[in-house]
What we know:
The complex is a heterotrimer of chains A (about 170), B (about 120) and C (about 400).
Chain A: H1 5-12, H2 19-22, E1 25-33, E2 36-41, E3 45-50, E4 64-70, E5 73-78, H3 80-83, E6 96-102, E7 105-111, E8 113-121, E9 125-126, E10 139-143, E11 152-155, H4 157-170
Parallel strand pairs in A: 2-11, 5-7
Antiparallel strand pairs in A: 1-2, 1-8, 3-6, 4-5, 6-7, 9-10, 10-11
Chain B: H1 2-7, E1 12-20, E2 23-28, E3 32-37, E4 56-62, E5 65-71, E6 73-81, E7 85-87, E8 98-102, E9 109-112
Parallel strand pairs in B: 2-9
Antiparallel strand pairs in B: 1-2, 1-6, 3-4, 4-5, 7-8, 8-9
Chain C: H1 6-21, H2 27-41, H3 57-99, H4 114-267, H5 273-407
Helix pairs in contact in C: 2-3, 4-5
Amino acid sequence: METSPLQRALKAAPDRSSVGQARPEQEFFCFKVGELRLGVPSETVLEVFRAGRLTPLPRTPAFVMGVTGHRGQVLPVLDLLRFLGKGEARVGERTRLCVGASGPYVAAVVADSVLGLRRILTSDILPPPLGGDAAAEHLLGVVQPGTRGEGIALLNFAKLLQTARQRAVMR
Amino acid sequence: MSARTVQDAPETVDILLVEVGEEVYGVDASQVLRIDRAGPQSFALAALGALRHGRRTLVYWTDSGEAQLKVDAVRGVSAVPLACLRRMPPAATRSPLAIGLSLAEERPVVLIDLPRTF
Amino acid sequence: MSLESPSPKSAPRRKSTSKSATPAPTDTGIRVLIEAIERVLAGDLTARAPVGELAGEAALVAELLNELVRQLSNAEARKAITSKEIDRAIDGLIALVRQGDLARWSKVTEDDQLAPLLEGFGNVIETLRTFVREINEAALRLSSSANQVLTASTQHETSSTEQAAAIHETTATMEELKHASAQIAENAGAVARVAEETLGAARAGRGAIGEFIQAMQQIRTDGVAVADSIAKLSKRVERIGTVVEVIDEIADRSDLLALNAALEGSRAGEAGKGFSIVAAEMRRLAENVLDSTKEIKNLITEIREATAAAAGAADASKVATESGEKLGAVAAQAVEGILAGVQETSDAARVINLATQQQRTATEQVVASMAEIEDVTRQTTQASKQSTGAAVELTQLAGRLAELIRRFKAD
């Protein structure tokens, strides 16, 4: 008795989805600020909250937009656009502040909107282009625009926060 | 209460809230000798932002004598609980002027150390 | 004289013949007698027979003869005087006849027999003289009068001609007037017609304006209702906006909650995976809600703009309709004025039309009358020409009469 193509296909079908387990992947917290689509390892992001009005601080670098109080904690607010030299962020009603920690140093970065948590195949992550700009030193890699969405620059958030801290203090 | 016994600090601190431009700053009320109308000896602190008119002045003592800092308006003295006071977060600013923040208000208020304005 | 002479000659001859034939006393005496007789017969009435030379019977005969000659001589003398007076009378008559001289008549005469005749003639001539004098005077007066008549007639003729010309002119003018008044009547008729049409149009306009004002009032009323509706709609939209804001707020909070929950789940590793999936799903829902509320907000904004525009339009419409009503009222007033004016114009034009028609009739009558007058004047001119001719003739006749009468000398 001959089997139909469907019956043949069903015999070959797996018992469960094996995509996630079979191939290594990493979770990123993705957001948009200005024209940039950025992603940071999700474990470096503690929390996301709405930006209220910030309190500017005297004599700070331009990328430090000020401080904000959150859950009884004072957080410096950083503008990644200014930090990476890609323009200026604006704080509006829907602006999100994403809290990141690098050791004891905790700070928030401004995001126009949060794209969400994305699991990205390690194989999809391309190394940062050589001889890039100032942003390049903080890049983990890039995801090319394709079937899974637009291109995203993946940042080393911990390193970035450390650099910011150093710049703020050292200058 | 426990704070007083443990840290030997007062439960509240009197903070004088003043306005400079759109911003609100807090100073240690005990450091302010008096509040006066701005005179020829008054100076403005650019780091605090642009003044609207600067008609008021805070008179206080510094190492080099009496100083008069121009402000736009004086909101008054607020007894801020210790729990609401925060040290300046590490590396937020390298300015010695801003010594801390008060979370007693709607948003954090930068606390200025008046003797260091000179 | 020749008539007179034979009769006394023959009579004495026959007498002397009969006398001389009978006696013949002596030859010498007789001879003397014969000689005397022959001298007398020859015409010498002064011849006498010498009585002294004779004697007897011859002396007697001589005496008788002398007496006879004397008597004859007397008779001849008387006869000569009479003849002379007659001659004179005849001369006078000749002069009267030939020269019309009535002045040369003499009534004085020695002849008793002739005197009554001369007197009779004299009386007649005197009468004639009186006549001539009177006629002369009359002729003079006639001549003067004829001259006056001629002058008057000439003047009359001139004035008659002038009058004719004037009448002609007047007739022409009247003719023109007739045409003009006909034109006026026509124009007035046209004006009246136009005025009538205008009247109709203005009445229609009045009606239209009335409707316009009503429509404006209706629009204003409607506009008020629309404005009310807009205000209500606006309030409701604001309410929706508030609700949407609440929904938005909730959705935003949900979004953040879900996001943080996902982060929490992520930190929990494999254990938090399911949690993360739910959180992501929740976040997706929140995003959907936010998208929807965004749309709603956009709609609300649009509605707000539209209602604001509508409210503005309603306000503008209200203002416009109010000014429209005012304008309508003004227009109505103006049209009333126009109606009154046009009515007056129409009436006036009709009156003018009527008057000019009457005038035309009158003018025609005048023209007719003028034609008659012209005719009469022409006749008058003709007559006055004839009259002038007659006067000329009369003057000539008077002249001739005076001339004729001048031939008679009355004084």
